[in-house]
Amino acid sequence: MAYVTHDDAQSVPLAEVGEMELYHAKSWVTKYVFSQDAKVIAIQYSVTAIAIGMLGLVLSWLIRLQLGFPEVFDFITPADYYQFITMHGMIMVIYLLTALFLGGFGNYLIPLMVGARDMVFPYVNMLSYWIYLVAVLVLVASWFVPGGPTGAGWTLYPPQAILSGTPGAEGGILLMLISLALFIIGFTMGGLNYVVTVLQARTRGMTLMRMPLTIWGIFVATCLALLAFPALFVGAVMMTFDSLLGSSFFMPAIVEFGELLDYEGGSPVFFQHMFWFFGHPEVYIVALPAFGMVSDLLSVHARKNIFGYRMMVWAIVVIGGLSFIVWAHHMYVSGMNPYFGFFFATTTLIIAVPTAIKVYNWTLTLWQGNIHLTIPMLFALAFIVTFVNGGITGLFLGNVTADVPLSDTMFVVAHFHMVMGVAPLLVVFGAIYHWYPLMTGRMLDETMGQFHFWVTFLGAYAVFLPIHYLGLLGVPRRYFELTDISFIPDSVQTLSAFVTVVALIVGFAQLVFIYNLIVSRTKGEPAGRNPWRATTLEWQTAEVPPGHGNFGETLPVVYRWAYAFSVPGARDDFIPQNLPPDQVPTDGSVS
Amino acid sequence: MFFFRQIVQKPWVTVEESISDLHGGAEFSLPAAKVGLWVFCAVITSLFLLFIASYSMRMSLADWRPLPEPGLLWLNTAILILSSVALQWARVNARRERIDQVKIGLFWGGGFAIAFLAGQLLVWQQLVALGFFSAANPANAFFYLFTGVHGLHLFGGLVALGRTTAKVRRDGFDMARVRLSVELCTAYWHFLLAVWLVLFGLLLLT
Ligand code: HEM
Ligand SMILES: [Cu+2]
């Protein structure tokens, strides 16, 4: 009722909305290649991220082949293996997930959802993508330098990262550091756009508290990234100094192959602090956009307003803040002061509070909703389950006493894959199924989607649940091969082989998904306007897919929050954010 | 505080709807470019704070041997201050629409900034000649790192300053735009001056 009856004196006349000057492409090249339109940049980011992500996927197959069937695949040497895990980890975390969530979804959704014609600094936005592309190319180039890519592990810990025993110490590590530095510069350019567009370019009536949670998630994640990436940058630059100029920021006095090196007095633990001061917020850089998007998916596909919207916003902000003071929970075994460990264990466990609030609110959103088990909804539901699973093992690892024996075992691998690998990826998939009709005007194929969902969801569990168990048995992480180790039973090998087979099947399902993306582009069922009957502005554009400038002649004006679903008294079960109150069709029950 | 006021709103309550409807969209009554610059300065602050943190951590280890600051640094600092002053001059005159004075301010601002960078390179040369290589001691390496990263930021600023100057020299420029560009450059210059003073102070004190 609240939304339908709105007395006239309160409605605001359509006033001047500050229009931005729009950049107009003059040629094909400036329209599709060096484009300044955020939607094109978004697609460029997404395609590049998915392409490099496929490489990460193939690397995971190679890793699994070695682990499942040791001594069968001779072409994988121990050095290769280390390069595979390092590049796999780095690609997945930075070049796939961060780039896809912020560069891809951020670029596409921010201007459309807040009602802007484009990002505020389109030129800088374009540069951001091209620098990202160069970063990716530099990363790939490390396969073609002598010694190949670095095998230091995605954490790149010195001193081993730059010593000659580690694969890629010749050129690979430098290319990795350069690529990261480029990525950060490119990201900062994009990030300025995302933040300032959200702050300054919203349309009339779009207060902060009327923004969809997707935007909140991306906004706070971008703030985290802008403040946390400098730590990685500092670490990368200082390590480059150590390796190129022979300084000793991180390098202690050390003997290499019986020879005393010139380094002296540096502290490798400083690097760990630098790395994790970035590394932990990074977890939330991929998690917060996922939190936001999944909230919107749940709300739309359950036809219900999100439960506890304000609480959800606060939780995002609080999690973002806390994520800067927990980093040393990755360093319990680094020999740091136990009181430090105690402090960081406490802050870590405190983060569980806002996180749990979010999980409750998602579940309560479903309560008495009109749940449609569409593919995006399936993925969203799978996310909740997976995130809870991954979160619970996080509570184990957050406690010093439980973490010490579990450190560097497969348990850690299983934990972070659940919480920051599988869970955000499920949201990525759900979001692609949800927004693909907007981006292309066509639906993705439903049958292939069902196949993709069930194989991915069940497969991910068949892969990672056993890996938890392996970790509990004490199987170490980052080992090329387990030979006869007394505390590890033979059955471990059987289980490992099983995991590998499932991982290959899950990988295959991703190829079906890619095929679906390509084929549906031309052959998919036409989606029409607003196929999910969503309230948010991106679905209310003049044309689908939205054209240059996003909205038609005038910008939309916002009259309500993004969650006006199943409002009593209204004819439809959703009311778009920009529908004036006096035009909302009623069902006749209210005068 | 304004942020706090925003996030306690209840967007689903009818009375608050009418207030929200009046919201114009922008959070601050500033041009987007200015907000962008503030955010960018926050990022740079984070960067230098992390550098300073690692400096103080590394300093506490045994092998630290402080490096003597060449006297030339004082001169460079003075030059950088002059550069900021010149840009402030440009900014004040851009407000008063006195374009000749703006040009003078921009010219000297850029000139002094280039002189500062050249001066920093000279300092590097002196130090290298004296044998203070970055491999020899972390204090040396930090010195090159700080001055280098600061210099690169200033260099980036010079590119923006060059574009502003080009704008002013074109016929039929738009005064409002020129004023905004000049204001942005000036703010960035003052910010980098502050960063330099902090870094220089840190180097002197340790
Ligand atoms: C396609 C499904 C995937 C499979 C089968 C898989 C498998 C693996 C395996 C077996 C390892 C090596 C563990 C070790 O011995 O240390 C690994 C490492 C890792 N993976 Fe994945 N992974 C997958 C997806 C992802 C995703 C989406 C992410 C993104 C967060 C990710 C992030 C990482 C990281 C950070 C490492 C650690 C690398 C290191 O030790 O330096 N993985 N993965
Ligand atoms: Cu963490």
What does this structure look like?
The complex is a heterodimer of chains A (591) and B (206). By secondary structure, chain A is mainly alpha-helical. Among the domains of chain A are: 31-211, Cytochrome c oxidase-like, subunit I domain (Cytochrome C Oxidase, Chain A, Up-down Bundle), CATH 1.20.210; 527-585, no CATH class. Chain A has 14 helices and two strands, in the order ααααααββαααααααα. Chain A has helices at residues 28-33, 38-68, 78-114, 122-141, 172-200, 213-245, 268-301, 309-322, 338-366, 375-398, 400-406, 410-440, 446-473, 491-523; strands at 255-256, 259-260. Chain A has a two-stranded antiparallel ribbon with strand order 1-2. In chain A, helix 7 (268-301) runs parallel beside helix 9 and helix 10 (375-398) runs parallel beside helix 13 (446-473). Chain A starts with 27 loop residues before the first helix and ends in a 68-residue tail after the last helix. Chain B is flat and about 70 Å long. Chain B has one domain (31-205): Up-down Bundle (Four Helix Bundle (Hemerythrin (Met), subunit A)), CATH 1.20.120.80. Chain B is mainly α and 206 residues long. Chain B starts with a helix and ends with a helix. Chain B contains seven helices and no strands. The interface between A and B is large, with 63 and 48 residues. Copper (II) ion binds next to helix 7 of chain A. Copper (II) ion (CU) binds at residues 280, 283, 326, 329-330 of chain A.
